[in-house]
Design a protein that fits this description.
Elements lengths: L2 E2 L3 E2 L2 E2 L2 E6 L9 H17 L4 E4 L13 H10 L5 E4 L2 E2 L5 H14 L4 E6 L4 H6 L7 H16 L4 E4 L4 E5 L13 E5 L4 H9 L2 E4 L5 H5 L1 H14 L4 E2 L3 E9 L3 H8 L3 H11 L12 H8 L3 E3 L1 H15 L4 E6 L5 H14 L1 H5 L3 H31 L1 H11 L1
Parallel strand pairs: 1-13, 4-5, 4-16, 5-6, 6-8, 7-8, 8-11, 11-12, 12-14, 14-15, 14-16
Antiparallel strand pairs: 2-3, 9-10
Length: 399
Amino acid sequence: MAETLSAGSAGDRIIRNGIFLAPFHPTTEDPTLAIERDLDLIGFLDSIGYDEAWIGEHHSAGFEIISSPEVFIAAAAERSKRIKLGTGVVSLPYHNPLMVANRIIQLDHQTRGRVMFGIGPGLLPSDAGMLGIEVATQRPRMNEALGVILRLFRGETVDQESDWFTLRGAKCQLRPYTRPHPEIAVASTVTPNSAILAGSHGLGMLCVAATTVNGYDVLGTNWQIAVDTAAERGVEMDRGRLRLVGPVHIAETRERAVANVAYGLGEWARYFRTVNPASPPELLADDPVEAMIESGMAVIGTPDDAVEQLDRLWQRTGGFGCFLQLAHNWADQENTRRSYELYARHVTPVFNGANRDRDGSLETYSKNSQELVGQAISATLESINQNSDKIQQAIKNRG
């Protein structure tokens, strides 16, 4: 089986922490301030140790208002130091592949290797419609564009003509800063196309519907398809590059978390029902919050609930490299940031066993504390007795 297990095993689980920023902003708020808040969020996540942030590309439907993840990443990189920034995703059928390759290479240099290249066919049919693209052609065009971009990343000169682009002597002026090129991840939902594409080239996978019923059901299957495809081509798949996306909002208590999401979850659910008539059934329930909690589609609760979700996903997949919280703005800014901070402090460290050795050290000391403290007291008294003459003399001198 062509697979590496850098994500760890059940006894040694190490996952990274990140977000998937579509973003989702209701039409009732100022879009300029919303984008500014997204940029500030990246800086905040960088300051509390988040590893990754992926930024989407959308052109219609009103809620998801970043049209160029590359432009956003360029600005976010100036407000952060270590967090890696990914396109989540570039919709390849919308762009000439030479232009995409050049933009990603430039970002790779500007960020000194912090950019990641997420790709997809395009999500909203209304985006494709405005560009005169037939939805049925989007996946084949994504596959075709990726092949060209990989050649350009390798420094090759490309002559290729298709029914939607023409390249004559096309070559990138710059080589990537990251060698051989920035990490590439393919967006995956339910169909096996992305798994086959990822396996063909040994790429990462962005499972953007990992916690929905359909997405959860195919998690293990699609990864296995990628592994099998890779094996046929002599390529290795790395579980460290398997990323799962799911909604999370946590607080000190479940009751507080539920109260927090009353701020914006309703509008978010209405948007999803509008753009996708086949929305998850939880969003059609009388109480979407309770329905999402019960089904496991979302974590709305405590850090312990989030750890349980990670355990469930780990068992389903056999291991993965990064969990990306879906940035949804269900709560106001203060409680949203509080949720991200609680996750960084109490979820990923627990799942990864970051404090295992500390716990062991504390337990060992606790079991032997009476003896150890007794030894320390005895040593102190002995030192005082040995130096009693000097102590008495010092007292007389002070008097």
